[in-house]
Amino acid sequence: MSELKIIVNKIVSSGKGILAADESTGTMTKRLESVGVESNPDNRLNFRNTLFTSSAMKTCIGGVILYDETIRQANNSKKIPEIISQNGTVPGIKVDTGAKTLANSIEEKITEGLDGLRERLKDYYTLGARFTKWRGVYSISDKYPSKLSILSNAHALARYAALVQESGMVPIIEPEVLMDGSHSAEVCYKKTSEVLKKCFDELVLFKVDLAGIILKPNMILPGANSHQKVTSKEVAELTLKCLKESVPSEVSGIAFLSGGQEETQATENLNQINKINKTNFIFTYSYGRALQQSALKHWSKNIEDIIGTQEVFNHRAKMCTLAAKGEWTKNLEKK
Ligand code: 5MM
């Protein structure tokens, strides 16, 4: 088995999933300020380190995506990547430098960060990272995502992935079709399929080893402002149909983003996907908000309450891991 495949398996097998703790300082500041906590390097580290030292890290979390600030931080002289890997969890790093306005389609975004990436990857490998993340964002409307945004983001994701594999790390490919808008689930299915197909065309062109990547897609959902009601079963069926049609079978690890879904909704949908899955793909989670929201709320009331915050996080991670095995039920949500 290739080294990359070994890393993929370590991150996503046996119901393990990924904690996406790679919020850039701007996003983390919004998250902390929304619960009345000042955003400074110490507070950002304290909250994150509370999660990294919880017991769920050993049992549920296969990988943690870090932000540049965090991968360089330490707690009581212990480096953060070491704290993470001591539980058998793989440290990862977000390497894109953010989504910027796309020229000639100014309402859309192109993700940047390719300049100097080969050198930055060497640095991150030395700091302990063994996987990376790059997120392309696409919005849905009558005219979007445009062909230009689909092509340019796929091209960037493929160039990124090839460089990451060259450096001995596993690239997470995250093409996120946003939930914003009033579109139906069927439109989300159609647009997501288009986006994914183009990504894989480019990945193949750039000779990326598909067994050595993790795909991080959105689930197929109606827009947040649409009035369409869908059941978890419908979400799971459409999501599976889309991925079966658009993702080559060499890909083994698929870890969904939560994209603004409520914690239990993201858990229930993942569970349903696994219950009816008949493919060979491993479906798990790579959640940011859907793993951290309740823990952050709890922590913000008393930032000294490490044990209480960890209990909240452990519960959420346990629910997600059960969902990754198709073993979650609503009753288990009651602690
Ligand atoms: C953790 O949030 C990441 C956002 O980073 P930026 O600050 O650069 O926007 C994001 O990429 C995240 O990893 C994924 O979107 C998954 O998070 P959610 O909250 O959608 O599960």
Tell me about this structure.
The protein has one domain: TIM Barrel (Alpha-Beta Barrel). Helices cover 47% and strands 17% of the residues. The chain contains 13 helices and 12 strands. It has helices spanning 3-12, 25-34, 41-52, 56-59, 68-71, 80-85, 117-126, 147-166, 185-205, 232-246, 263-276, 289-301, 306-324; strands at residues 17-20, 61-66, 74-75, 78-79, 90-94, 99-102, 105-111, 131-138, 170-177, 214-215, 253-256, 282-287. The chain has an 8-stranded parallel β-barrel, surrounded by 6 helices. α10 (232-246) crosses α11. The model has no long low-confidence stretch (mean pLDDT 98). 2-O-methyl-1,6-di-O-phosphono-D-mannitol binds at residues 20, 22-24, 27, 65, 98, 135, 176, 257-259, 287-290.
